[in-house]
Amino acid sequence: MDGAGNLYGATVADGTYGYGNVLKLARSDNGWMYAGLHDFTCGADGGYPYDGLVLDADGNVYGTTSSGGMNNLGVVFEVTL
């Protein structure tokens, strides 16, 4: 959760390409608003996010994937907000 109360998460096998995505949930007057931040392609950006996410002080989101990247062994990724 960030300082504004937004929640961040990752799905393992969802998104446009089926390799997972990173998402943001922001509270609004009508409930929670969903925003997709990144859809993994299982290429250089990785695929199948693994474990949790970390946010830095600037609001960037970091995590790891279990596939994609060099030699298909996963990547450490950053989603810049």
Question: Descriptors for this entry?
Answer:
mainly beta, 3-stranded antiparallel sheet, 6 strands, single chain
Explain what this protein looks like in three dimensions:
- With 81 residues, the protein is mainly β.
- The protein has no helices and six strands.
- It has a three-stranded antiparallel beta sheet, with no helix packed on it. A three-stranded antiparallel beta sheet has the order 4-5-6, with no helix packed on it.
- The chain has one domain.
- Strand 4 and strand 5 form a beta hairpin.
- 0% of the residues lie in helices and 52% in strands.
Blueprint (SSEs and pairs):
Blueprint lengths: L6 E5 L9 E8 L2 E9 L7 E9 L5 E7 L8 E4 L2
Antiparallel strand pairs: 1-2, 2-3, 4-5, 5-6
Give a concise summary.
The protein is mainly β and 81 residues long. It contains no helices and six strands.
Tell me the total number of β-strands: 6
Secondary structure: helix percent: under 10%
Main structural class: mainly beta
Main beta sheet: strand number and arrangement? 3 strands, antiparallel
Oligomer: single chain
Number of domains: 1
Order the strands across the largest sheet as they lie in space: 1-2-3
Number of helices: 0
Given the C-alpha coordinates, what overall shape results? Answer: globular
Cα-atom radius of gyration: 13 Å
N-to-C order of helices and strands: EEEEEE
Straight-line N-to-C gap: 14 Å
What would the average pLDDT be, to the nearest integer? 95
**How much beta, percentage-wise?**
over 45%
* pLDDT < 50 stretches: none
